[in-house]
Amino acid sequence: MKAGRRDFLKLGLAASTALFPLPGFAQGAGPRVVVVGGGFAGATCARALRQADPRISVTLVEANATFTACPFSNAVIGGLRELSAQQFTYDRVAADGIVVARTTATAVDAQARTVTLADGARLSYDRLVLAPGIDIRWGALPGYDEAAAAQMPHAWRAGEQTLLLRRQLEAMDDGGLVVISAPANPFRCPPGPYERASLIAHYLKTKKPKSKLLVLDAKDAFSKQRLFQAAWAELYPGVLEWVPLSKGGAVTSVDAATRTLVTDFGRHQAKVANVIPPQKAGHIADAAGVADRTGWCPIDPVTFESKLQPRIHVIGDAAIAGAMPKSAFAANSQAKTCAAAVAQLLTGATPSTPKLINTCYSLVAPDYGISVAGVYQPSASGQLVDVAGSGGVSPAGAPRATRAAEAVLAEAWFRTITDEVFG
Amino acid sequence: MGRTLAAAIGIASIAAAAVASAEPPAGAASCAGCHPASTRVTSPVPRLAGLDRAAIVRAMQDFRSGQRAATVMDRIAKGFTDDEIQAIAAWYATQK
Questions:
Q1: What is the CATH number of the domain that holds A247?
Q2: Which residues form the domain of A127?
């Protein structure tokens, strides 16, 4: 497939090189695109740029040698999977002719079109793609800072935090209280807190059946809510309790030393506390001036170019993508759309109007999967909106065979997308 | 001179159409989120590259109408018009 696609592209390239010289670029010197962030969005975009036009020089700036994927990390927390199954290298990305710079981007000069790296070096670009994912808003929840996260893990960026939460659950005596605090919208992976609650409840039910899980929520509604709640009633009665905003679910402060979560209605002292805190676009978005007052990045829905700074594109969780959720599938879809638009813009062509897809699976138990899907297009008002009549969640009341089939599809999805992005 | 220019523009527009057809049409690239691009991946979800164009069109139309049972493709197919389905099917049929 890959060799075939490359050959196909070469034919297209022969024609385009002859007839569509790249404006403003010296003979032999291709346009330069810098991509910051090597997650589902950034790594996909870097590779898609090279596939769209091999004349583009692509540098991927990523501090980690290994990527640790968030999708399925809730299964690691629940003891169903090892963290190594979540980890991928950049070897195949580099093999596409992409320069992988293992460092951090610290600043962007949108006028001079340069990215400053941690060692002070500067990379010049013709187009910049920022895919920084999320940062935690430290301090937005009183008492929750980086030191507190060592006691009450967020585990919302996969890796050490994922293992810390798992070890705390494993070390807890049977009969303990586990508390999850879920944030207000928007945040990475809207169904994520509820999948996590499900798989922790599964762990407690099978390993520590006298224990209880309390989900304190800053919202009254959440993704796939009816499906989750029906499954919880069936699978985890007496184990999992969800407390919505209107019933006092919003956590207003925490005390890490005593693992206490405070709401307007009371205090909950947990044996294990998982605080999923308020979030914002990764730091470089703010440094580049592409994040607005919300902390997220407004973009053009055709090109994903920032509405605040020219020639800087933002994709993945950091972007305000209208109806599209902050998911790995959405990031991958946006990255390909952005790469095609950037390749077209670099030749002076007009980017085509895209259509994007999202599909998110959640596991409620190892053999019980549910999904939400959507199809999106730019609206006349410049937002990404749902295509009318499309999308939605798995059917309510479906037989267990359907749930089992979706659990199998969920795992297949993970193998497929990680192979496409990192394989 | 004018004729030469017109001829050049004619060639350019033919070439532009050829180049454009090499790029995936709207929506097609996103299919690879679930439909494996590579033969390395084991999945119950079929690879689309090289499939018969008419078979892809029929599958999408049947998913969209509900004639064919689905887990998620019914919800996704409803987001695509006949023209978009034709373009996606034609593109995947030429891929290897």
A1: 3.50.50.60
A2: 30-63+103-137+279-352
Would you place residue B1 in the very low, low, confident or very high pLDDT band (cuts 50, 70, 90)? very low
Establish if A348 touches chain B: CB-CB under 8 angstroms. Answer: no
Can you name the CATH fold of B26-94?
Cytochrome Bc1 Complex; Chain D, domain 2 (1.10.760)
Closest Cβ opposite residue A333 in set B33, B78, B96: B33
Chain A residues in contact with B94 (beta carbon < 8 A)? 8
Count of domains forming chain A: 2
Closest CA to A337 of B81, B31, B30: B30
Where among A292, A317, A352 does a domain terminate? Answer: A352
Q: Is B69 on the interface with A (CB under 8 A)?
A: no
pLDDT at A190 exceeding the cut of 70: yes
Cα separation, A54 vs A414, whole angstroms: 28
Q: Do B96 and A1 touch (CB under 8 A)?
A: yes
Contact A144, A138 (CB under 8 A): yes
- Any domain includes A358: no
Contact criterion met (CB below 8 Å) for B18 and A15? yes
Distance from CA of A415 to the nearest CA of B (A): 7
How much is the ipTM here?
0.90
Q: CB A423 to CB B42 under 8 A?
A: no
User: Within a 10 A sphere around the Cβ of A360, how many other Cβ atoms?
Assistant: 25
What global pTM score does this model have? 0.92
Interface touch A15/B19, C-beta < 8 Å: yes
Same-domain pairing of A146 and A250: yes
